[in-house]
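Record type: ASSEMBLY
Status: queued
Input:
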Amino acid sequence: MNLITNYQHQHFAHCESGVMATLLKYRGLELSEPMVFGLSGALCFAFLPFMKFGNMPLVSYRMFPGHIVKALPKRMGISYLRKRYRNPDQAMQELDDYLEKEQLVGLQTSAYHTTYFPPEMRFQFNAHNIIIVGKEGDEYLVSDPVFDSIQRIKAADLKLARFARGLSAPRGLAHYPLEVPDPERMDRVKLIKKAIKKTVNMMLYAPVPWIGIKGINYLARRVAKLSSKGDARYTRLFLGNVVRMQEEIGTGGGGFRFMYASFLQEAFQVTGWQALHEASERMTAVGDAWRNFALACAQIVKKSSSADPDEIAPLLRQCGENERQLYKLLKSTV
Amino acid sequence: MKIDDVPQDDNRTFKGYGTKAVYAVDGQGHYTKTATSGWEVEEVVLRDVLDDFDALAADAKSRALRGEASPIEFFLYRRLMDLPSLARAMGLAKWRVKRHLRPRVFNKLDTALLQQYADLFRIDLSALTHFKETTDIEPDH
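Status: finished
Output:
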């Protein structure tokens, strides 16, 4: 049964920003998911060829998992509790205590042990985010932001999911805001300015070749070289991996670009700066361009087009160039 | 992406699991959150990687039945992992897990370690020890 009174499940595009928006709203600070995403500066691009997952290099369209939970409270001056556990039983006991006290907590879990996922999606991914809202027998009621309704998970599976080993192991992480600032007295303009500045600087000037625009161009060079390798299976899996990171894993479409465009639109309404309005429209176009690239990749994977990978590398470069222009515009604004 | 362009391709993976939320622009140019039943592009690339896992698992299975590979290799691919991620999830060094893929080493493993593998693979211990008699294992257990 649901232990949190008046809890209304909400459907979000991304798990971490969804959990954050829900927890803050519960404490009385209402922010939209794009606002949470944008203010925490979670937009990114990273292509790390030396970090392999399933033999594929890491491609990411956002900051590393856990960034939002860490960065947003800091930026907004929210006092926030993040607690990890050594003892799984203690962690589960404290979860029950929280439920008893009607304290909403966010948990980090592993997708592999999340039994209500489609079996095809249960990869080794340790940074999923959920909220527990009730308990019935040995089952917990889960408000999972990327699902459109309340889900259920067995206590034993939840324990496994909270204490899975591996990369970015959750170690039982439970988190919730202790106190939020008064929404009336929050300087939203300043927060928006700071957040955009941070994202723009990272995307344009990251001092390593794997991050930001440089990362997009690096990936484009790698894609252009794929066909000369002559390994059709590797080419398919490589392109598929990029597209899956962009579209499949709770990004709200276009590798988080549409969510960021929505943030820019909201930011325009708060600040009234015309440039943000234009930036939002251009970010939408960037998202559409990323989706065109995904479509071209899928056609190669499906072998429905004879296109060479070198023919889709220019699509990527175009995405990079469009984003560069856009961040320059943002930089001149904030 | 305009709201009218949001794909509704009824992806097989999401059948019975509901919809996904995406952000799109409505007729007035405002961003709204809307639901999608999936995009064919996602399904194509996901099926491609799953087919690859299936092929690896089928190959490992036939070798395991012939005694040329250990059942751990079959479940490794059946559960959508690779060697490094299996080693990390087990908390073991990669070279040790690699050894466990050899039938001769596997046959000598002690029950505690096998149980740890079985727990991770979410199967009964007997599926590892009596692999030949076990029929297919579904991943949703």
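Annotation: The longest strand of chain A covers residues 43-53.
Annotation: Residues 131 and 143 of chain A are 5 Å apart (CA to CA).
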